[in-house]
Amino acid sequence: MSAPSSFCLADNNSRVQELLPLEAQLQRALNSAATSARSFTEELLIVSEALPREHANALISYLGERYLPASGALINTGAPAAAGEAHPGATRTLPELFALLSHATMSYAALLEAALRLFDLPLREVAWKHQTDYSALLYPVADLLAPAVAAELANNRWECHCECPMCSIGLCGCIAVGQMEAVAALLRPDQELDSGPGFLIQQPRRGSQLTELHVAAGDMLLSIDGESVNDVAQIQTAIRKHDIGQTMQLVLIHNGAQRELTVTHVHDYQS
Ligand SMILES: [Zn+2]
Ligand SMILES: [Zn+2]
Prior knowledge:
Layout: H1 9-36, H2 41-50, H3 55-63, H4 90-117, H5 121-155, H6 165-169, H7 174-184, E1 199-200, H8 209-212, E2 220-224, E3 227-228, H9 232-240, E4 247-254, E5 257-264
Antiparallel strand pairs: 1-2, 2-3, 2-4, 4-5
The structure holds zinc ion (2 copies).
One zinc ion binds at residues 160, 162, 167, 172-174.
């Protein structure tokens, strides 16, 4: 969009027209993510219920009688893809949805700016609402990216071979770190990550201690040696209080019941 030397309301019409295809694209991307990320049905349901289907209509009603639909498809508010249809993996569809949400957030911010400049009250209302709606969806989708990678790795029977203390006992922290970084990248500098209590365990590495002890994906690690642990940094620190070969006590929740395990610190990066 070039910066015009003068502003008029007609420019806002064309800005709004330009956003209509983006709304249709968002609906398609959401459907495609919902089809491919089957393991995350519940989480995507939250996104899909929050993804406002009335946005396109709000744009059309702003345009009013000036709106002339382009020939061909208008707004597809989302027939799901046919069952059994080939679909790309969640690690492709979720980033696409994420990129479109970011694009929509920025586009409506620009539209809001134009509306403010021209004192275009109806557009100001629409642009502000749509911008906040889409920016609110960035977080839940970013939260899904790392678990989607983990699920695809597990489905393809690939596993982490990181040599850090956690991954060495089968308690991979790599995905959790990736997820934390993806979400942290979206935070304002004055916001903080709230990791919540405990650490959600991914499928332990084959042959690792946790696998031998029948720890499963979805178990929640609560403490090491009596100290609560909530994130990767705390867990690595707790393990590194021991020399290689020393044991420690883990407390975790498995199928709703508390379990206590003894594991040995077996490995760390070569120094
Ligand atoms: Zn590691
Ligand atoms: Zn790992």
